[in-house]
Write a sequence for this structure.
């Protein structure tokens, strides 16, 4: 979206990954869009100790080179172009590619490469032949809609089909194995400081599936989902320590990943596991056990208040719905009388199945919607 002023708060993602100058230029380019504003201002915060060097690097735009001639990049685009009818055969893909920036840079797409791309997409069931042309499958459309590599979508589809066939929906290690152990975009090794953690995950996984062999590709990401599914405690936070950055990445990505899995379920697998998907998102994001999922669905209740409610004996929506009889204990648990009354009302509506029944919370924004001051009391969803 356009803006008059853009402020980039730093040039690092996480602890050490630097944002490329092209990405920074792309962000600052949103300031003062031509035809929408007469001017725009952009500011970039740079580290003090490397300020001059970073200023030179980020003030000069590097040359731009297209990667659209590579098979791994093309797979993202072919399905979308196939949907529009512009690239439904390898020959049409070559003709489409001839009009791209990659072709203008002398990186023409050969028919052999185009056929290899179609073959790759067929192997991961993202496209299917229909007469004289190819068309996207349900899995292919999901890949295109959410911009996931079709090989990962196929891995999720096959993995969760196995989960459903074997009744492993309540086995966190097996679910994490499917979520994180995908072939594309994951680490292909286990660093020394992660080996013990990953070994613990593999042991938990083999307890569920004794035939599962130790693997490296995606193992760290699978561990991160498994660790995020373990309840946080005050002295054992999942996003701390050597693997903390991987857990934080899993928590940031889980909503989008689970959105893909929901679509796989509805359009391909037909497992009808909406409740499991909603609970999975909440558990990964907030580091809570299954028992707290109904509580964090209440307005103003995040993981902290959910744990306090549980400890105070309000372990279910039914218990919260009857909380007016134990209002003092409920107020102590949530820290505010207005909040206590509001969550009792919401729990009662949920129990009654009325028009104001609580809906499962699936985003941080929803958690924040309830953060306000009521009658001068703190009302933060903790």
């Amino acid at each position: 979206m356009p803006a008059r002023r853009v402020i980039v708060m730093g040039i690092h993602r996480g602890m050490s990954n630097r944002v490329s100058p092209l990405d920074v230029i792309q962000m600052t380019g949103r300031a003062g869009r031509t035809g929408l504003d007469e001017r725009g201002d952009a500011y970039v915060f740079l580290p003090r100790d490397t300020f001059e060097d970073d200023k030179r690097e980020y003030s000069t735009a590097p040359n731009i080179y297209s990667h659209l001639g590579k098979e791994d990049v093309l797979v993202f685009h072919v399905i979308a172009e196939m949907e529009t009818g512009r690239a439904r055969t390898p020959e049409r893909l070559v003709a489409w590619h001839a009009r791209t920036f990659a072709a203008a840079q002398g990186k023409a797409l050969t028919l052999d490469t185009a056929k290899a791309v179609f073959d790759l997409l067929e192997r991961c069931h993202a496209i299917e032949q229909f007469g004289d042309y190819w068309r996207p499958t349900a899995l292919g459309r999901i890949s295109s809609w959410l911009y996931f590599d079709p090989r990962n979508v196929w891995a999720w589809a096959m993995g969760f089909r196995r989960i459903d066939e074997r009744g492993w929906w309540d086995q966190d290690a097996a679910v994490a194995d499917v979520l994180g152990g995908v072939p594309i975009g994951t680490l292909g090794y286990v660093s020394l400081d992660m080996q013990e953690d990953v070994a613990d995950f593999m042991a938990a996984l083999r307890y569920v599936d004794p035939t599962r062999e130790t693997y490296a590709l995606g193992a760290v990401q699978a561990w991160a989902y498994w660790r995020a599914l373990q309840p946080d405690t005050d002295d054992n936070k999942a996003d701390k320590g050597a693997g903390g950055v991987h857990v934080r990445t899993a928590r940031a990505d889980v909503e989008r990943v689970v959105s893909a899995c929901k679509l796989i379920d509805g359009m391909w697998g037909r497992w009808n596991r909406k409740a499991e998907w909603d609970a999975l998102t909440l558990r990964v994001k907030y580091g809570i056990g299954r028992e707290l999922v109904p509580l964090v669905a209440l307005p103003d209740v995040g993981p902290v208040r959910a744990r306090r409610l549980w400890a105070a004996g309000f372990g279910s929506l039914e218990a919260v719905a009857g909380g007016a009889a134990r209002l003092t204990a409920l107020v102590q648990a949530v820290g505010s009388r207005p909040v206590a009354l509001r969550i009792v009302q919401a729990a009662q509506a949920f129990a009654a199945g009325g028009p104001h029944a609580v809906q499962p919370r699936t985003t941080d924004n929803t958690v924040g919607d309830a953060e306000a001051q009521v009658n001068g009391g703190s009302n933060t969803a903790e």
Remarks:
- Residues 150-284 form one domain.
- Residues 354-360, 362-381 have pLDDT under 50 and may be disordered.
- The chain is about 55% helix and 5% strand.
- Residues 125 and 306 are 42 Å apart (CA to CA).
